[in-house]
Amino acid sequence: MSATSAVTKPLKTNGLGRTAKPRKPTPGVSDSSAIGRNKWLPYLFSAPSIIFVSVILAYPVVWGIVQSLFRREKLASPLEFVGFENYLVLFSKPTFWDSLSKTGIFVFGCLILGTALGLIFAFALNRTLGALRFLRAVTIAPYIVSSVAAAVMFRIFFNGDFGTLNRVIQFFGFDGLPWLSNTTLAMIVVIVAQVWTDLPLTILLVLAGLQAIDKSYLEAALVDGASSFQRARLITLPLLSPQIAMSIIWQSYSTLTGIGVVLALTGGGPLRATQILPIEMYNTAFVSLQQNEALAIGTIILILNSLLTLIYLRLSSGYGVED
Amino acid sequence: MTTASPTTAIERPLVTELPLPRKRKVRFTVRSRLVQVLLWIPLIALVLWTIAPFFVTVVASLQTRGEVFANPGILPANPTFDSYVKVFEMPTFWSSLGNSLFVGVATTILTIAIAVPAAYAFARFNFRGRAFLLLFTLLPRLVPNLALMVPLYRLAVQTGALDKIFTLVIVYTGMLLPLAVFLLVGFYRKIPLELEEAASIDGASMWQRIRYVVLPLSIPALITIAVLAFREAWNEFTLVLVLMTSAENRTLPFELFSLEGTEGIPDYPTQAALALLTVIPFILVYMRIERYVVQGITAGSGK
Fold first, then answer.
1. Residue of A47, A162, B125, B261 with fewest CB within 10 Å of its CB?
2. Under CATH, domain A85-318 is a member of which superfamily?
3. How far apart (Å, rounded) are the C-alpha atoms in residues A273 and A187?
4. Which residues does A65 contact at the CB level (< 8 Å), separation at least 6?
5. Which fold does the domain B85-299 belong to in CATH?
6. ipTM confidence
7. Nearest alpha carbon to residue B133 among B118, B144, B114, B148
8. Does the CB of B77 have a partner CB in chain A at under 8 Å?
């Protein structure tokens, strides 16, 4: 019985006959009764939220993109339309390309480490039947920590003089490493700290995917004599691919647009070693006071981000995953 | 290979206890018992990975400035609460704590007060432009805080909203609304229409139906939204960094950040103590809200 249900299930969601059928009414929306009949009330109800979203989110983003096409020569001089000059100025600066490559390393490093740890931990959590609630509570603990507090924690953990990590290394008879003052090591430190703050979501996404897998597939494979490694590689991972893809896209969203952890941990240093684009944007806007140029950096980040979002939307609709 | 008919499954002698009723769990062989023991290694790694930063921060906060460097051990030699006393004596600590509390509570209330009617309208009414307006409300969820940093700062300067604590409430509410509306619309659509129709037949007005039928049923969703909203307002750093300029208007993350920036050798114990104090409100209610946090994280993967 279990096997047959497993076979018929995919057929149901195939979307056959979607074209022929008339549009279904939206669930929960009333068509017939007195409920939900009013000409102006729904507009009144939704107006505050629409106004808030427009004023706080939609308008500022559009304004920022438009403003990135303007420039003022001196702080007091009026704004002038300069087209893409801000972008051309950026592209001519080696520091921009340096930041862009640092961003690439940072995002890529976070994705690799975050996805690897997320998968390992989620698989392990999925197999525990006992203390799951406790372990899940531990898992999501980083979520309640602000980015600045996480940065403080990791500065203490990785401190070159007294950091716990170096104490442990020294305990085994090796020399401690200058984690925060070496350019290569500093990048590793910020990647670890960023992954630490993002990991709860990755684990929960993958775990939800694992728990949704129809056990009958695995049982059938077990019966056919598939080893646990084969089961994981040939059944679980392919079935998990929508969740993995989604977690990858959200991780890149978070690392590409996150500034708090790196700003509070290294501030972009040492020697620009962790100067990712968001920090470059912040410095351009609030240290060099070139706000329109900063908006150009912001727009570039937005473009990179929306490319990733498009991939996310495509993947999630392709797999039929609910938003 | 993936599909085997249940009859052959039973005939196989290899697995003796294959479940006929589907609910029963698959028994593992001796080899997979070993695997189960090995499974504890990633679980221990997970606990260590998550707890270690908390642990070293607690240890650092219980030491004095000099001791942090001098003490070669991992545990504090002479635990002291000096650094906590130092935090409490900071003049701006109490104001930033008060600001964080105010912004957290006000954002939560405002978000719910605005999201509930909007979600009710989108879930229950058929009106012209409903799909478009819903999309317009939900789509900005994808806007990252980073992209708002400079524009909101400039707009706040122009409108005189810079360095006013209420600006933060407005901004955070705007940021949270797409997600809150999204969650509530989904929730309201699952509440059977018949319940409201029955109440309506009994003579309940729309306000009474919302008050006595819809709201009590949506309490779990409201708690999830409250946890998300409070946590976002409490922990947000990117925007408070540029929108607040004077020391007495900082929230806790900003306060912690500016403590880092003081000259000379950083006062690690005080930083550690303050970092822990920012987490404490959540720790106190942690096991109670954990379920809602899990829902909030998975639903709120947008932010």
1. B261
2. MetI-like (1.10.3720.10)
3. 7
4. A295, A299, A302
5. MetI-like fold (1.10.3720)
6. 0.83
7. B118
8. no
